[in-house]
């Protein structure tokens, strides 16, 4: 019995030795250089969410799909983009396009900035970077710190051992920088993964998170991973992880803008008006609008993503100063604050009247002739309908003792009930009087607001009390508040 047990033990030991040698030969044939080859030869991408969860989000039109709107008449366009291009580490700036187009009645000059849409990143690869995957598409809203959970504990690893070579262990990130772009313009974001020896590591899985959207990318032979972003206007945080290391950077997307100058024989130097000159905001964009007003009526378009389209005018009467100053301040505000949708601002409808500090255009009352073909106010109504606006606000100043003679917002019940609804909202939130008429075109025939309402676009007229040709203290701030309230009602800001 003892001899049989001893014989069995010897046979079992011999079998284990043979199995061990065979396993060593197999590992040696597959990975002659040991763990390094094992790491490098693991080519199948590992996706944290599982392959079935990968999505290619709908692509939002980028910069080459943003068309010039054209203009109402002869077009003399000079298109250019904002001088601060989208920036990112190792990212080259893109070229600027110029467009020319012509029609028959009026002339325009246009100036563009570049813009951005919701995130658009799908599977891709090239010589410099391994495959990139994305999932969890979102609506493009900025993320919050609480909405993101670090994947550090669940991050898939490429190591075949619990004690891998330090040359393959991510030790720190470099290359990562804050990036900025404009709505409609793509921007690249890079990180480089280094080991403890300061060398880039190839084929490391890096997880990126921005606005609750996840991107997975492998580093290339230089240790660099890259993703391409294209978001709506907003302020975002990009978080990135590899193994046990992590980091975060800012991603800022500004509103796209384009300036079009309508040559309606209306141009003049509005800085000849001392009260305009003394209240110009510190903004290069506003100064550009003032310069263009010398030869026409400039309109600036801001776009931050999908949403409603709102048109705002001031300066119909050249000596109503507070609303024109407020419109300049609104331009500066929109340059620096992301919006949802599109806003058109015409700060000086009547530059000749503004420059001379007089009410009318060559003795012509623009707010009584918006229904008269050929007038500046008529052409403005055509623009509002052409751009398929969802709302319109015309901003004025009323002198003490005039009509309405106080801070007020006016609207109508017919034909668009939303005109009355907008007026009530502005009245409540800007704390001004609300005046609503039964039907557009009856109380003020030929007025801009009435004519736009008749076209089926909800419109309001906003007045602040101030002597004509002057600025009453607080009147500019009140006009700006009503402009912003109009935008808030339409969920643009």
List the helices and strands and how they pair.
Elements: H1 2-30, H2 35-40, E1 107-112, E2 132-135, E3 172-174, E4 179-182, E5 187-194, E6 205-210, E7 213-218, E8 224-229, E9 234-242, E10 245-254, E11 256-263, H3 274-277, H4 284-292, E12 297-303, E13 309-314, H5 321-336, E14 342-346, H6 351-356, H7 376-386, E15 391-398, E16 408-414, H8 417-430, E17 433-439, H9 448-454, E18 459-465, H10 475-489
Parallel strand pairs: 4-10, 13-14, 13-15, 15-18, 16-17
Antiparallel strand pairs: 1-11, 2-7, 3-5, 5-8, 6-7, 6-9, 9-10, 11-12, 12-14, 16-18
Give your account of this protein's structure.
The chain has 493 residues and is an alpha/beta fold. The chain has 2 domains: 144 residues, Immunoglobulins (Immunoglobulin-like); 226 residues, 3-Layer(aba) Sandwich (Aminopeptidase), CATH 3.40.630. It is built from 10 helices and 18 strands. The strands form 3 sheets. A 9-stranded mixed sheet has the order 1-11-12-14-13-15-18-16-17, sandwiched between helices. A 6-stranded mixed sheet has the order 2-7-6-9-10-4, with no helix packed on it. Helix 5 crosses helix 10. The radius of gyration is 32 Å and the shape is elongated. About 28% of the residues have low confidence.
């Amino acid at each position: 019995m003892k001899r049989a047990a001893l014989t069995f033990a010897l046979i079992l030991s011999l079998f284990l030795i043979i199995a061990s040698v065979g396993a060593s030969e197999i590992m040696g044939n597959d990975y002659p250089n040991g763990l390094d080859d094992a790491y490098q030869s693991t080519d199948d991408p590992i996706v944290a969410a599982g392959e079935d969860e990968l999505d290619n989000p709908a692509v939002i039109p980028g910069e080459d799909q943003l068309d010039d709107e054209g203009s109402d008449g002869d077009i003399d366009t000079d298109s250019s983009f904002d001088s601060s291009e989208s920036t990112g580490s190792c990212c080259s700036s893109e070229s600027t396009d110029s467009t020319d187009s012509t029609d028959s009645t009026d002339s325009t000059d246009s100036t563009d900035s570049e813009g951005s849409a919701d995130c658009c990143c799908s599977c891709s690869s090239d010589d410099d970077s391994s495959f990139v995957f994305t999932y969890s598409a979102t609506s493009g809203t900025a993320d919050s710190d609480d909405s993101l959970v670090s994947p550090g504990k669940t991050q898939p690893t490429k190591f075949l051992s619990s004690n891998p070579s330090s040359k393959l262990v991510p030790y720190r990130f470099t290359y990562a920088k804050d990036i900025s772009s404009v709505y409609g313009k793509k921007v690249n974001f890079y990180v480089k993964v280094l080991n403890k020896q300061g060398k880039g590591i190839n084929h490391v899985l890096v997880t990126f998170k921005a606005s609750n959207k996840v991107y997975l990318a492998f580093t290339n032979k230089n240790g660099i991973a890259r993703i391409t972003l294209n978001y709506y206007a907003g302020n975002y945080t990009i978080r990135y992880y590899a193994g046990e290391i992590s980091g975060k950077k800012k991603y800022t997307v500004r509103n796209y803008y384009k300036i079009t100058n309508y040559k309606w024989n209306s141009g003049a130097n509005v800085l000849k008006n001392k009260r305009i000159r003394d209240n110009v905001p510190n903004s290069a964009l506003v100064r550009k609008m003032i310069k263009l007003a010398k030869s026409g009526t400039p309109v600036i378009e801001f776009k931050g993503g999908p949403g409603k389209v709102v048109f705002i005018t001031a300066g119909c009467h050249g000596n109503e100063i507070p609303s024109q100053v407020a419109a300049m301040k609104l331009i500066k505000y929109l340059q620096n604050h992301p919006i949802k949708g599109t806003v058109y601002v015409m700060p000086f409808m009547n530059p000749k009247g503004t420059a001379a500090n007089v009410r009318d255009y060559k003795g012509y009352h623009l707010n009584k002739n918006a229904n008269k073909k050929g007038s500046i106010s008529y052409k403005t109504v055509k623009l509002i309908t052409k751009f398929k606006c969802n709302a319109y606000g015309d901003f004025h100043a009323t002198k003490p003792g005039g009509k309405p003679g106080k801070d007020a917002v006016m609207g109508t019940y017919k034909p668009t009930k939303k005109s009355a609804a907008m007026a009530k909202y502005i009245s409540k939130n800007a704390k001004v009087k609300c005046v609503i008429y039964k039907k557009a075109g009856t109380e003020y025939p030929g007025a801009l607001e009435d004519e736009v309402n008749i076209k089926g676009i909800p419109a309001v007229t906003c007045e602040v009390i101030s002597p004509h040709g002057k600025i009453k203290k607080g009147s500019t701030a009140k006009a700006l508040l009503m402009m912003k309230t109009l935008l808030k009602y339409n969920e643009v800001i």
